[in-house]
Amino acid sequence: MPWNVGVLGAGPGVAALHLPVLGGLNELFRVVHIADAGSGRAQSLAEQLGVRWSEGEAELLTDGEVDVVAVCSPPGEHGRQILAAIAAGKRAIFCEKPLATSVEESEVVIAACRAAGTSLLVGTNHLFDAAWGRAKHHLVALQGRVRTISVTLALPPNDRYHRVVAEGGPFQSGRRGRPDLNDPAMAADVLRQLLTGLAIHDLPAIRDIAPDLEEVVYARVAPPIGYLVGYRASGILVQLALTMLPQGPDALWRMSVATSHDRIEVNFPPAFVHAGSAATRVRSVDGQWTEYRRDPEDGYAAEWRLLASLLEGVAPVEYDELLADAQYAVDLADAAAAKFLEGVPQ
Amino acid sequence: MNPADRGFGVCTALPAYVAAVAELRLSAALRNDFSGAVAVVPGSGDWWQGMLAARAGGAAAVLIADPEMLPQEALESNAWPTDLPVIVERPRLRPDVVADAVRARRGSPARIVTVECAAPALGLDAVIRDGLGWARFLVQGSLTLRSGTAAAHGSIALLDSAGPAGGSIPTTLAGAEAGGLHSGGLLQLLALGEVRTEVTVDQLAGLTRVETSTEDGLLRAPERFESSARLALRRALVACSSGRPVTDLDDLLEDTALTWALHGT
């Protein structure tokens, strides 16, 4: 029998991503309830699927049919809603990234999940991408010493991809206007949000290789919206670059790992679409390039499959890893924001 | 026909250049002395001494073939020639390939440039130097080092250059020591923006690739089949005949100084 899912949130990520993914995994999951703050989108999405809908979260949490709560609301709500789902006795929680917005909140959430035995998975989908799994295996098996890691993102507007996986719109979250990056405090906040909202897809994978954050070397906010962050962790040099473009070529989302004897490049597909796993290629020191096949399943489906395995007790919930991932992201974001402000003329 | 009439004199014993002269049958001819000729100076060892010796010997132009990294002392202490054309052959930074990359952007400025270099320790600085040269062309201006750090076997840096409307274009650099015996290394650049340029130069793999992506798709520049030596020699001959200034040496010194500056971060 599939597990019954209640979804908190009804934004583009739910409409264009999680509902279709769960539809494709209907042997494992069945959406039974959608709730949001009252935008009307939850009702629209639920009626199309013929499931219950509600405003606020109370009704969904008291819905006895809901086994799994998918927390897909704005990041500031995540911690509180997870605690509410635990209090309501739910079996498992899928939380869109980030887990929480502070280290303290992350600790509280993880402690509560652990105490209640609630399964928890955070939707940093690249971590679950089969291609990354193979790349990590390559790193471990060949014992190459990692020198540098680069994650480079160049992203056109998401609605280009929403339109090929959803219908009807609106495909943009509520727009808040372009932030004033000339205001240092606002720019630092944007940097922090981008790191905990976008870079976070790859930070758990980076933490696997470079776990101990030592120093942020540089941090810059790049107009129109983007960042450049360089840091050192566990003796490894890491660079993160993002530019969000009003138009341009298809999304580039690339992680490169340079080791003592090869260079591994993982090219993730654009967000929202289902083009299979990332594409991986390796260049060895003798100049040989090897390209590996794509897995037909992407990280979005893989993360939900893993949640099913957690529910069935086939795989353990890695509470300590989840907490460490959350801490890493928050610590990096805080340190980068501080570094950025350090460089602002007073 | 008098051999002296066949073409401009080229003084070289480097096989690649002897071959290049043979491929330029109408415009070049081998000579045994520097006087009035294009003097090809091998880029290994203290090549700058060879360059100065060629000028003293009356060369009409000097061509430095694939120069190794210039030591910091030599960079700072030498009086570099300004009275004759100096052409620098940089196989990782071929002018024709650079022109392909820049032209394909159709004037669209880069928002961010990333440079990644990997090579055995002895050759890494030269790969970084040429990577910075690529970035200089892609941002169409000089780079300034803003921040950087080095670990045991790698380095990262943030640089920038003047951008449109008084803004700046940031460039990131990552250099990593790799194993292996070949010093050629791997150079990969991305110029991100409404037009995206991706450059891959892998000498060991015999790969030079320039790809330009827009909303309409991807354009891969045609492979350049002319040898790097022949291209450099042609440019030297044009410099001699046209009298137009050549900035190769200034560019090389600028990229070299920046590479050395990275070591000081």
Plain-language structure description:
The complex is a heterodimer of chains A (346) and B (265). Chain A has 346 residues and is an alpha/beta fold. Chain A has 2 domains: 3-122, 3-Layer(aba) Sandwich (Rossmann fold); 127-299 and 328-342, 2-Layer Sandwich (Dihydrodipicolinate Reductase, domain 2). Helices cover 37% and strands 26% of the residues of chain A. Chain A contains 11 helices and 14 strands. In chain A, strands 8-9-10-7-11-12-13-14 form an 8-stranded mixed sheet, covered by helices on one side. In chain A, strands 3-2-1-4-5-6 form a 6-stranded parallel sheet, sandwiched between helices. In chain A, helix 4 packs parallel to helix 5 (103-116) and helix 5 runs antiparallel to helix 11. Chain A is globular and about 55 Å long. The termini of chain A are far apart. Chain B is of the alpha/beta class and 265 residues long. Chain B has 2 domains: 3-91 and 227-248, Rossmann fold (3-Layer(aba) Sandwich), CATH 3.40.50; 95-220, Dihydrodipicolinate Reductase, domain 2 (2-Layer Sandwich), CATH 3.30.360. Chain B has helices at 15-23, 47-56, 72-77, 95-104, 121-139, 228-242, 248-263; strands spanning 8-11, 28-31, 38-42, 61-65, 86-89, 112-119, 144-151, 154-162, 168-177, 186-192, 196-202, 207-214, 217-220. In chain B, the strands form 2 sheets. An 8-stranded mixed sheet of chain B has the order 7-8-9-6-10-11-12-13, with helices on one face. Chain B has a 5-stranded parallel sheet with strand order 2-1-3-4-5, with helices on both faces. In chain B, helix 1 (15-23) links the parallel strand 1 (8-11) and strand 2. In chain B, helix 1 crosses helix 6 (228-242) and helix 5 (121-139) packs across helix 7. The longest helix of chain B is centred in the middle third of the chain and has 19 residues, at 121-139. The mean pLDDT of chain B is 94.
Tell me the strand order in the biggest sheet of chain B.
Answer: 7-8-9-6-10-11-12-13
Low-confidence stretches of chain A: none
Strand content of chain A: 25-35%
Tell me the β content of chain B.
25-35%
* CATH architectural grouping of the largest domain in chain A: 2-Layer Sandwich
In helices, the fraction of residues of chain A equals 25-40%
How far the N terminus sits from the C terminus of chain B, by CA atoms, comes to 60 Å
